[in-house]
Amino acid sequence: MSSAACRVLIIDGHPDPAGSHFVHALAEAYARGATAGGHEVRVIQVASLEFPGLRSPEDFLKGEPPIAISEAQEHVMWAEHLVILFPLWLGSMPSLLKAFFEQLLRPGFAFAAARGKGLPRKLLKGRSARIVVTMGMPALFYKWVYRAHSLKSLERNILAFCGIGPIRASVIGTIENARQRRQWLAKLEELGKEAG
């Protein structure tokens, strides 16, 4: 966790822009805390962006990103700490958020061809991240029975692959519990103050 002022980018990955979702409230709580902690804050609400899904390797490798994605890439380059929030849908992130990452983390921006026979070069080093996942099931059930596979995939196969780290996670289960909601909103606000 950081005590010095830092540039924080919050990526609200709920696919419904309506304001009543718990993910939105958590994003707002983190932003409130980060602002109170003296950090600079920007927010991307994925549901409000206009972009198509990728349909071919050619488009991924050589296509031009849409304007909304280019602007999101500028925010990522500006940021020192990313906060990614989403609800668990069918065991993974919602498809709109996955489509956003496919558009956002393109070759030449997030990673580059290897020199020689090594692994691709990571172009987003120097940024940390926190992932916040909400779900109806108990968090321990997700972690122990389902092995948090979608969370681990985002950490290892997407963020760390691009050089982002360290990566911390908050898994919030049983979200219909009002007392638990209040506790997590307070917790996210505290994490925001530390940009952690």
Task: Give structural attributes.
two-stranded antiparallel sheet; alpha/beta; Rossmann fold; 196 residues; five-stranded parallel β-sheet
Describe this structure in words.
The chain is of the alpha/beta class and 196 residues long. It has a domain at 80-110 and 122-196: Flavodoxin domain (Rossmann fold, 3-Layer(aba) Sandwich), CATH 3.40.50. It contains seven helices and seven strands. The chain has a five-stranded parallel sheet with strand order 2-1-3-6-7, sandwiched between helices. Helix 1 links the parallel strand 1 (7-12) and strand 2 (40-45). Helix 1 (22-36) runs parallel beside helix 7. The mean pLDDT is 93.
Task: Describe the secondary structure blueprint for this structure.
Blueprint: E1 7-12, H1 22-36, E2 40-45, H2 57-62, H3 67-78, E3 81-87, H4 95-104, E4 111-112, E5 121-122, E6 128-134, H5 139-144, H6 149-159, E7 167-172, H7 178-194
Parallel strand pairs: 1-2, 1-3, 3-6, 6-7
Antiparallel strand pairs: 4-5
Helix pairs in contact: 1-7
CATH homologous superfamily identity of the domain at 80-110 and 122-196: Flavodoxin domain
Using the alpha-carbon principal axes, give the shape: globular
DSSP strand tally = 7
User: Structural class, from helix and strand content?
Assistant: alpha/beta
Whole-number mean pLDDT:
93
Hey, roughly how much beta strand do the residues contain?
Answer: 15-25%
Identify the CATH architecture of the domain at 80-110 and 122-196: 3-Layer(aba) Sandwich
| Spatial order of strands in the largest sheet | 2-1-3-6-7
Q: CATH topology of the domain at 80-110 and 122-196, which one? A: Rossmann fold
> How far apart lie the N and C ends?
4 Å
* Contiguous runs where pLDDT drops below 50 for at least 5 residues: none
Tally of helical segments: 7
Helix content: 25-40%
